[in-house]
Design brief:
9-stranded mixed sheet, 21% strand, alpha/beta, 36% helix, globular, 5-stranded mixed sheet, 14 strands
Length: 351
C-alpha cells in the first residue's frame, strides 16, 4: 500500500496517530435463493453461490481507515481468528493492508467467524453466523494485552469497539480508551443494544454509530409507523441521558444518514451510485467518520466524507471495496457532482 493513495494529511501533525480496535474478524459466503417466498423450516431450496467476498466488522472498518490514513497511522487490531484455512487467508489479507496484527492470534482448535448470507430475488435476506467462533473467545484478559499500546498513544488515539466479540471485551477496550485519553467509538447491534453491558459501553463512548433498525430497537419505535428523523431524534435524546456529551451517527440506507454533534443534528442524502451490494456500507460509513476525526474535521464535514466512502463502497459486490482510496474517492465525488465542503476537498484532491 503506497501513501500516494492516502489522504493529503500529515499524520505526524495530527492529534490522533493510532486506532486500537476490537470486533469480529471473519468471512462468509452469499447464497442467492431461487423463489421469493420465505424459506420454510423443513424446506429444501435451490440457489447459487454469488461471487462476493464477505468480511466482518473490525476488518472492514480497519481496512478503510488504514487505506485512507496511510502508513504513518497505526491501526492496531485486537481479536482472534481460527487456526484454519479461512483464518490464515484473512491474516495474509490484513498483513497486505499493513494492519498491525500483533494482537490477532490464530486460536488452536477454534473456527474463524463465518456467515452464510442468503439472498432472495428481491434483494432481501438474512444470514446464519457461527456463535462459537474464535471471535467469541476474545475476553477482557485478552483485551488487556494491548494496554501498553494504549499507554504509548496516551491522548493520541482512537479506541474502536465493534460488534461480533463479547460485550464485556468491548467494554474493557473502551475503559482502557477512557483511561488513556482516547476518543472512543462504538457500535451495537439491535439484539444487544438494551443489555446492561451495552449501557456501560454507551457511557464510555464518545461516538456511537448505529443503523436505523438499531436506533428503532433502542427507542422502541416502530420503523413502519415512525419516520427516520423522529427515530434519530428519540435515539439522541435517550443516549444523552446515559452520556451527555455523546456524538451520534445513524445510517438509513437509501434515506441517507443523520448525525448529532453535541448541539445540532444534520441529515445528508445517500450518494447516487451504481449499487452492486449494500453489505458493509454502514461499516464503511463509520470508517469515514473515524478518518474525519483524525483529520480534524467537524462532525458535519466528517459525515460528508463518510457518505462518500459508503457511496463508493456499494459499487463493489464485496463487503470491502478493494479500490477505495483518496484518488478513487476524488474521482467518484467529481463524477457524482456532489458539493463537498472545502476541508474534505483538500483531503481528497490531486496535487
Amino acid at each position: 500500500m503506497g501513501d500516494d493513495f492516502s489522504l493529503n494529511l500529515d499524520i505526524a501533525a495530527a492529534h490522533y496517530q493510532a486506532m486500537i480496535g476490537t470486533g469480529g474478524i471473519g468471512s462468509g459466503v452469499f447464497f442467492a435463493l431461487d423463489g421469493d417466498h420465505t424459506l420454510g423450516r423443513e424446506e429444501s431450496r435451490s440457489g447459487r453461490f454469488l461471487d462476493k467476498r464477505d468480511y466482518c466488522k473490525l476488518h472492514i472498518i480497519s481496512h478503510y481507515v488504514k487505506m485512507l490514513l496511510g502508513h504513518d497511522f497505526q491501526t492496531i487490531l485486537v481479536g482472534k481468528v481460527g487456526d484454519d484455512e479461512v483464518g490464515h487467508r484473512l491474516l495474509v489479507e490484513m498483513q497486505d493492508t499493513q494492519l498491525d496484527l500483533r494482537y490477532v492470534s490464530a486460536a488452536e482448535g477454534e473456527q474463524t467467524l463465518f456467515s452464510t448470507c442468503f439472498v432472495y430475488p428481491d434483494g432481501s435476506g438474512g444470514n446464519l453466523t457461527t456463535a462459537d467462533s474464535a471471535s467469541a473467545r476474545v475476553d477482557e484478559s485478552y483485551i488487556a494485552v494491548a494496554a501498553s499500546d494504549f499507554q504509548f498513544y496516551q491522548n493520541r488515539g482512537i479506541a474502536l469497539a465493534a460488534p461480533e466479540v463479547p460485550l464485556t471485551a468491548r467494554q474493557r477496550l473502551l475503559e482502557l480508551g477512557r483511561q488513556y485519553g482516547f476518543f472512543t467509538v462504538a457500535s451495537l447491534n439491535s439484539a444487544e443494544i438494551h443489555t446492561v453491558e451495552a449501557v456501560k459501553i454507551i457511557k464510555n463512548t464518545d461516538l456511537l454509530a448505529i443503523n436505523l433498525d438499531e436506533a428503532a430497537a433502542l427507542t422502541g419505535l416502530d420503523l413502519l409507523e415512525t419516520g427516520p428523523e423522529a427515530i434519530f431524534e428519540a435515539a439522541v435524546e435517550q443516549l444523552q441521558q446515559l452520556q451527555s456529551q455523546i456524538f451520534v451517527a445513524v445510517t438509513a440506507g437509501k434515506q441517507g444518514s443523520w448525525t448529532w454533534d453535541g448541539s445540532s443534528c444534520h441529515n445528508l442524502p445517500a450518494m447516487a451510485a451504481a449499487v452492486k451490494s449494500t453489505a458493509g456500507a454502514g461499516d464503511a460509513f463509520l470508517a469515514g467518520l473515524i478518518v474525519g476525526k483524525v483529520a480534524g474535521l467537524t462532525m458535519v464535514d466528517s459525515q460528508y466524507l463518510a457518505t462518500l466512502v459508503a457511496g463508493l463502497s456499494v459499487t463493489s459486490p464485496h463487503t470491502i471495496h478493494p479500490g477505495v482510496n483518496r484518488q478513487t474517492l476524488w474521482k467518484f465525488a467529481r463524477q457524482s457532482g456532489v458539493r463537498l465542503p472545502d476541508p474534505v476537498k483538500e483531503l481528497l484532491k490531486d496535487g
